[in-house]
Q: What sequence folds into this?
């Protein structure tokens, strides 16, 4: 899952259960809520691509 807001870009690899949980909570439609939920994932599942995206 990848999420972009005005301030950041996050990417996460979700398990099937995590994906269903996020889908049922409808955070797919709210980028701010999705970034908050992704930040709660274990660090091995989450990548902050904000700095990478700002590189020319």
A:
């Amino acid at each position: 899952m990848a999420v972009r807001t005005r301030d950041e870009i996050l990417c996460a690899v979700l398990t099937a259960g995590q994906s269903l949980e996020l889908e049922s909570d409808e955070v797919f439609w709210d980028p701010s809520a999705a970034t908050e939920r992704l930040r709660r994932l274990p660090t091995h599942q989450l990548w902050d691509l904000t700095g990478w995206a700002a590189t020319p």
Observations:
- The helical segments are 16-24, 31-39, 50-54.
